[in-house]
Amino acid sequence: MSKGVERLQDKLTEEIEQAKKNMQSVSAQIQEHEVRFETVKTAIEEGFKNVRTSMQGLTDNVYKDIKELHSRLNKVFEVLQEYGQNFEDISTAIRELNERLKKKFGEFTDGINSAVESINRLWDEVESLQKQLAEEKALRESLQKQQEEILKENQAMKELIQSLQEQVLALQKERVGEKMQDKS
Questions:
Q1: Is 85 a domain residue?
Q2: Which helix (H) or strand (E) holds 84?
Q3: Of 9, 108, 157, 180, which is least surrounded by CB within 10 A?
Q4: Number of domain units in the chain
Q5: Which residues, 6+ apart, have CB-to-CB distance to 80 below 8 Å?
Q6: Domain containing 56: what range?
Q7: pTM tops 0.90
Q8: Gap between the terminal Cα atoms of the chain
Q9: Does the entry feature the keyword Coiled coil, yes or no (predicted)?
């Protein structure tokens, strides 16, 4: 009976050791993913800085060009009011200015679209890493719960073994007492 108890204790000890090794492995993986997450986070922050700088420069240039075009259009309209006979030349100038304005606006829109695409790609990568970290955290918690359950089961087995040992001892004492009575 005590060999069976010892085997049971050995088996429980092996399971606990295996659970500890699994926890260490998962912890190492989580730390590795946390380092990768920090690297991606730094890259995203740098990307956002670059996007902001590009957007600010682009916005400033477009704003200056629009302001210049607006000023020129105002002058054209003034000339148009003063010199109605030169309408054809003024109309051509307005068309050219309008085309330049459309071109600048198109460049501005292209820059914004490119920045938005970059941000979306970075965001997708962040979401993917967050999902991986959440899965690993859930795995870690699951393993920790399993380890706690094994420890509880181990404690219950120890108590059961203790109880069985006490019962065996009591039975042995009882048999010894009976043998003593038989001899007397």
A1: yes
A2: none
A3: 180
A4: 1
A5: 86, 87, 90
A6: 2-170
A7: no
A8: 31
A9: yes
